[in-house]
Amino acid sequence: MAEEDKHMLFGKYEMGRLLGKGTFAKVYHGKNIVSGESVAIKVINKDKVKKEVMMEQIKREISVMRLARHPNVVELKEVMATKTKIFFMMEYVKGGELFAKVAKGKMSEDLARKYFQQLISAVDFCHSRGVSHRDLKPENLLLDENEDLKISDFGLSALPEHLRNDGLLHTQCGTPAYVAPEVLRKKGYDGAKADTWSCGVILYVLLAGFLPFQDENLMKMYRKIFKAEFEFPPWFSTDAKRLISRLLIPDPERRITIPAIMRLPWFRKDLTQTTSFAMEEPAEIEKTEEDINDSARKSTKTTSPKFFNAFEFISSMSSGFDFSSLFENTRKSGSMFTSKCSASGIMEKIEGVGNAMNFKVSKLKDFKVRLQGKFEGRKGRLAVTAEVYEVAAEVAVVEFSKSAGDTLEYVKFCQEDVRPALKDIVWTWQGDNVVGNCNGNKTEGDEMTVEV
């Protein structure tokens, strides 16, 4: 191997010095040789994670980081793999851990408030996407060159599919000093409420310079956490004490919520509006099974839509049966319809609808488009992705999914805007019994046949 190729990855990244290492991964400084942008390259040894049955955790971290695109969350730019290693290409955050600042002692209330505002903004955004971090602590909060906070390490995070039938999480995880009492009790917990407790501990630590709950004996520390036994240093302001007292309530149902935190005058002081929702998403971070279990793929230009597995198609369009558990690549529920129109005709129609609604229309792939609204909603600007799949020679499936914004606004968009505007090309909507054709003529209960 030539000397200049020794530290090159996939002909795209130059790998530099070691930044840190853990049990299963090492993190290096890197550079995108095309853009010149600095990146952090997390290198994971496949054999080690397979031995520890951690492959699912790796896939979960990828899924979560794709969802949590926010200025105060470390950005995952790309995932690549070889037969022996997985590479996370991430945003390079060069300011180090917030923990290093805390280790030097307490900080001013204004500075602590700034970091807390950014933390709450990012956590609120994650929760709006169904993500619970579950290991929030100063060691997992990084600072960039502008002294802005970035949440990292989503390895222990949870998604809605990790909830049990009782609607709660049951995995006991996190760092004891920052973990909510309901997590320690092993009786099921709400991940968002548990994150809120951790935010309370972090705020206390920033203002005090030490932990609210600490004891050399772990069981004694747990008892303090269960009862929320802690004392405020004399320099805490009345408003800060009041907020922390409402955050560190052992009963999660009585604990203050993030929307309530955001309304408090103390929190809103000098608040800078986040630009989280205006962030441009990359074309797409690949996260397929091939990325994790095989070598990196080379991009190829497509001339026809992706093939939609016929069994998956039947189960998706049926309101009475769900075969999704039989397939590894299960689809998240979205708005889906079939059409007998050509894929190019469908794409042209969708793009026309987006333009008519004054949405920004971005083509991600030949048969995939992103529509983004121009106005801020409850959770920022609504962004919707539409993709066309081929089922058979004369049948296409079109799937809409929300990639940013508020879920209720998305549902309203689908029901009141998309459905009426696309009626001329829809054959049948998912779960509906009424079908039509390209000309909008509808009949009751037409038989749908897919060749398998």
UniProtKB/TrEMBL annotation:
It catalyses: L-seryl-[protein] + ATP = O-phospho-L-seryl-[protein] + ADP + H(+); L-threonyl-[protein] + ATP = O-phospho-L-threonyl-[protein] + ADP + H(+). The keyword ATP-binding applies. PROSITE patterns: NAF, PROTEIN_KINASE_ATP, PROTEIN_KINASE_DOM, PROTEIN_KINASE_ST. Pfam families: NAF, Pkinase. SMART domains: S_TKc (SM00220). InterPro entries: Kinase-like_dom_sf, NAF/FISL_domain, NAF_dom, Prot_kinase_dom, Protein_kinase_ATP_BS, Ser/Thr_kinase_AS. Residues 13-267 form the Protein kinase domain. One of its GO terms (molecular function) is ATP binding. It comes from the Eukaryota. Residues 282-301 are annotated as: Disordered. One of its GO terms (biological process) is signal transduction. This is non-specific serine/threonine protein kinase. It comes from Nitraria billardierei.
